[in-house]
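Here is a typical protein record:
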Amino acid sequence: MAGPEHMYERIASVLRDKMIMGELGPGDRLPSQDDLVEQFGVSRMAIRQAMDILENEGLIDRTQRLGAFVRRREPLIRRSALHYLSSPGAPFAEEALAAGRIPRYSHNSYPERASIEVAQRLKISIGDEILRTDYISYGNDEPMMLVHSYEPLAITGGTVIERPEDPGPYIAAGIVARFTAIDMRPTLINEHVRARMPRPSEKDALQLRPGTPVFVITRTAFAGDIPIETADIILDSDRYELDYPIKIEPESTLPTTEGP
């Protein structure tokens, strides 16, 4: 256990390794504080600090009197590329079912005026009319994802896709199929991912444990040079993992460099 870390970090590392190796499985109770004090020859304070680290990493849950338990965790894996197929099906539902959860979602669409940030993303004027749609996605009735989508009514207003969740041929069809229907097929979708601590409304909506950060995916879809939709996708980092497959072109398609 040599190294520059504090002793409580080393203790956390030993317990973390036991979880990785399967010696401590989901739902298993960790040794008591007294047992860990004796095992490592340290103070109770060092053990509590080690438990703090593991709890903050989302690896354990602690309950008063009962002790610490390895957290049961079956995250949804979001494979970004599958969300933007011409016929995507129901990507969230498939991700939820793959993790053993029953999916459902709620939605609400309403007109709004573009804020500074949304206007910049959509390359429109501040205050221009947009349609905002808010989604909450659930797995086993637990909220897991928030989406705030913004579409310029100068493009979608009066078309068959103006309201994305209205009954009709394009209900829940995904942005590729929807915008293709009005001859604005997306040619590029950009996702920018960052992590931050949740805002109070996000913490409440996602029912987050204290100290849990969120993934924020800022998405903007383009048809040529024209932004046609932008969205904020907010994920509970304790319930989600992100997967971004990157396809490498075959060597035969790469440009060659010829000598003089």
